[in-house]
Design goal:
heterodimer, A: alpha/beta, Rossmann fold, 4-stranded parallel sheet, globular, B: alpha/beta, 5-stranded parallel sheet, two-stranded antiparallel sheet, 12 helices
Chain lengths: 147, 319
Amino acid sequence: MDVFEPKIIGFLCNWCSYAGADLAGVSRLQYPPNFRAIRLMCTGRIDPTFVFKALAEGADGVLIAGCHPGDCHYTEGNLNAARRYHLMMKVLEDFGVERGRVRLEWISAAEGPLFAKVIRDFTEIVRALGPFNQAAESGAGDTVCAS
Amino acid sequence: MRKLRLASYWASACGGCDVAILDTNEHILDIAAVADIVFWPVAVDFKYSDVEAYDDRSIDVCLFHGAVRNSENEHLARLLRQKSEVLVAFGSCAVSGGIPALANFKRREDILNRVYRESPSTENPESVLPQPHFTAGDITLDLPDFYRRVYALDDIVPVDYYLPGCPPTPERIWEVFEVIVSGQLPPAGSTVGVADHSLCHECSRVKKEKKVKTFYRPHEIIPDRENCLLEQGLICLGPVTRGGCGARCIAANMACRGCYGPMPGIIDQGAKFISTLGSIIDEDRVEDAGAVIDRIVDPAGTFFRFSMAKSLLKGARQP
């Protein structure tokens, strides 16, 4: 049987974590190709809708990564992200989304090796959790789905 | 002028939408003057077989309340779509699942177990669950199939208009009737009887900077009547919810529960409200903010109270 290859969406802030990912790239650090990066100016831009939509449309895991607390380019955007993340995880728990599928990390522009390590760890965690596959399972068995 | 042929049906609903129609008070007589009621189970004695005998599209307007929870609801949704010229998803349950769709947080088996076996007031020593088919001698009895999850009306059949609210307010209902009678119908697919701004826009309370250190449940405090309820720590869905209701709950000193659905442009009312609430918590240290958040009871059920069937995830993942 083939090994499950999860799809992982990452929302990276422009000033720290995207630069950290860039550093991992130019340093030729190896990490799995399951990760798709989306660059935003700040993690404070991340509406929980983005995470819900990613999960609803086929992502198996979502990473949010930004500047360390105190380092935000916009002073406190990352603190907003952290508060929303905490509340969102409480809500996602009721939706049956395992804690390991959605992850918040602080990765600075100098932390290329940390970025590569986070992606390696996270990919294996999501791989172990298996496919998320929300739409296919939720209504299976109802006649409305058959018609 | 030919009288309109009007139908009203309740699927998975509480009956509050039917009461809301009656709450148009003396206007109900004006409705009777321009429309013949050809199907309204809560008020008039027509049978499903009467509806099946109608010509296709012979009902001018059908007001469909309630979500689709079982095979009977689905059958009537399809039947009334076939027999109606204009089908209106009437009330939050038909529009977006409403309260019944909160059951989507649970699996069908868990719901049946809870209701028929575990609830404290249930005595069921033989552990019997309702079966769709039951035969005794030469008689077979049928019950509708209980679906795995709750659907909004337009998950099943195309819908012409959406009139949200739990229930829609009588003023909005009457306005919609006036539009129907005038024949000046809005474009198909429109949400009617609503405003395009948020509830906050029509709320008259004083709004200052939103910084909240503690959230309360409605029974824990008596809020003052002057200031924003959200700023007083009550979970008010006003910022993400469509106006049009006239802020009736706010006038009764109750926070908005979100029944008019998401503002235009919001994809997922509950997810958007996480964004709202997360950004007004007045704690900078992540641990302190976490402590505030952990005191919020049932955030998922509160934020998705009326919009579950139309939310992005539509329900809990079924293991």
